[in-house]
Amino acid sequence: MNVTGIIVEYNPFHNGHKYHIESARSATKCDAIIAVMSGNFVQRGAPSIVDKWTKTKMALLNGVDLVFELPVIYSLSSAEFFAYGSVSLLENLGVVKNLCFGSECNNINLLKSIAKILAIEPSQFKLFLKEKLSNGMSYPSARNSALNNFLLNTKSSLTKYNIDEILQSPNNILGIEYLKNLIRIKSNIAPISIKRIGSSYNSLNVEQSFSSASSIRNFLKLNENINDLSSNIPENVLSILKKFQSEGCDFIFEDCMVPYLRYKSFLYENKIKNLPDISEGIENRILRSLQNNCSYNDIIIKSKTKRYTYSRISRILCQFFLGFENLNSEILRRSICPYGRVLGFNSTGIKVLKEIKNSSSIPIYVKMPKKTSEMLQLDIQSTKAYSLLNKNIPFNSDYLQSPIMADQI
Q1: Is residue 35 located within the same domain as residue 184?
Q2: What is the pLDDT of residues 19-43, one digit of tens each?
Q3: Is residue 291 within 8 Å of 262, Cβ to Cβ?
Q4: Does residue 322 share a domain with residue 263?
Q5: Which residue from 122, 212, 121, 135 is spatially nearest to 170, judged by alpha carbons?
Q6: How many Å from the N-terminal Cα to the C-terminal Cα in the chain?
Q7: Torsion angle of the four alpha carbons 299, 287, 393, 409, in this order, in degrees rounded to the nearest 10
Q8: What range defines the domain where residue 269 resides?
Q9: pTM of the predicted model as reported, rounded to 2 decimal places
């Protein structure tokens, strides 16, 4: 079978995601689409507004054939580790021929050229990067500046492009990380870029038809009439969200975590420094903000520095909420994804799953195994933590919930 992989979060699913799926199918002429999807916590450092099972339903109703959960050790990491976990999972399944992702520039050769430099890290580039970091720049800014210096010094043809603009666009950044990791793991998966359409990633304004997930989340947070989103999300997704509300379920936002984070900051304040993204005493700024009864946004604003971005602080807070400090988190996220957890499938997905079981280099879990690895245990722990925020999710739902079958939605 010709199988295409996509890497997604669906927080929540919208028309842009539908376009991505349809474009991926058209561009690759594939027989099936596998989605690697972050579960109850997403890469920007936040709980998902709806649970992973609900997101799986949205995916299956809109063209995805098989959904795997991206382990939370990767989904709550920087773009580099998020991409590494996702790409290594797709590679280890043994059936994926293509990886299709959206990008703002949609220039696959340009993105490949940048990715190759970042994958190889020439010595001159490393020197520039070290210099920028020593000047107190955040890693993303330091890397962008080092790359520009390297291209100028080597008189690269890439200098004709606006590299800063390319590296400040979220989907370009993720696309480059996917390509970089395909290079590093020597994968034969063919990368394909789809032009991202609609409002910008960080836009908070709901548009006519292609609004960003950020704007839709903001709309839902303001308790606006959900029917007003009808032109921005597929009808079946609108139905799911309306049913979600009618059953008394709340959409989950970051502020829901604050009481638990404050309690934990008093109880385990000496442990926060063990988190993988903590260094240089930033934990003291975070603890002060947590213990001053601030909102989630204020905690981050008061904690962030020139070197620590908003997203990084947000991920640190989620990591602390889930208990990353008790694990070898840095070692875990540098390891290739060691298993595939199935969240849902349709009839085509069942056929793909049979092929995967014959070709995969990692175990595939349709139900939870009796013995769980440290990484899988963290996934289970993250669901238990999410159940504190979403009272409609049983704390042990990873053991109770079978994979979603499309014909039973």
Answers
A1: yes
A2: 999 999 999 999 999 999 999 999 9
A3: yes
A4: yes
A5: 212
A6: 26
A7: 50
A8: 254-332
A9: 0.95
